[in-house]
Amino acid sequence: MYLYIKYIKVQREGIVDIIISSNTNMPIYEQITSQMKGMIMRRELEAGEAIPSMRAMAKALHISVITVQRAYEDLQRDGFIETTVGRGSFVSARNKDFYQEEQQRRAEEHLQQAAQIGRSCGIGVEKLAELLKLFYEEA
Length: 139
Fold this sequence. Notes:
By secondary structure, the protein is α+β, with helices and mostly antiparallel strands. The protein has five helices and four strands, in the order ββαααββαα.
């Protein structure tokens, strides 16, 4: 079952889509965090743009405010949003490069593991590259 929620953003009159899946082991707050980070990285949400309040997000998704609070705290800790008491939460311009660098480092670790497995099992680099391309294009 999927919960599909659309938030109307007043500033740009665009739509922010958050999809919460119950068919995953990923906690709800991590689903929110990863989707919001992705939207910021793809510039679907611009620096300085307001994001929904914790209460509005929780109400729309039919989840606890505490769950949304955890997601927003993670986003703020990682520098993706800034929260001001009385004003709300806004997309921050800082740390985009850091996040992208961190994700590249994580990908490199996985690729290094894949290369080690390939070497130890006799899987050629061409086959590994073919598999990587297949997985990359699949998403």
